[in-house]
Amino acid sequence: EEVGVGRRGERVVDEGPVERGPGAAFHMFVLMEDLLDKLKLLSYEEEVLRRHNMRPLSRHYFALPTNPGEQFFMFCTLAAWLITKAGRRFEQPQECDDPNAVISNVLSELRSF
């Protein structure tokens, strides 16, 4: 029974409740480590951290909700940097900016890709 179309255009089928294995609780930590490896390959330490005088991300920075305001600002800073790195002009968000406006701008820019 087809339910709809997924993010990448593939068909999505509803197979009922999903069984989660014992490793599912650690999946977010694995994703965060992969993200950090990719950011390091793009030289985020030199291009983002030094420029904004920020501390390096831990292996579990976005996997654990520790300081939502700081994590949100780091996410927005990284998103702006990645959009700029992809060849688009994107203004670096400030901590005092409206979070809804910042996310709206990021999403709008990503949709235009």
From TrEMBL:
<dbReference type="InterPro" id="IPR019530">
    <property type="entry name" value="Intra-flagellar_transport_57"/>
</dbReference>
<dbReference type="Pfam" id="PF10498">
    <property type="entry name" value="IFT57"/>
</dbReference>
<protein>
    <recommendedName>
        <fullName>Intraflagellar transport protein 57 homolog</fullName>
    </recommendedName>
</protein>
<dbReference type="GO" id="GO:0005929">
    <property type="term" value="C:cilium"/>
</dbReference>
<dbReference type="GO" id="GO:0042073">
    <property type="term" value="P:intraciliary transport"/>
</dbReference>
<keyword id="KW-0966">Cell projection</keyword>
<dbReference type="GO" id="GO:0005794">
    <property type="term" value="C:Golgi apparatus"/>
</dbReference>
<dbReference type="GO" id="GO:1905515">
    <property type="term" value="P:non-motile cilium assembly"/>
</dbReference>
<comment type="similarity">
    <text>Belongs to the IFT57 family.</text>
</comment>
<dbReference type="GO" id="GO:0005815">
    <property type="term" value="C:microtubule organizing center"/>
</dbReference>
<keyword id="KW-0969">Cilium</keyword>
<dbReference type="GO" id="GO:0030992">
    <property type="term" value="C:intraciliary transport particle B"/>
</dbReference>
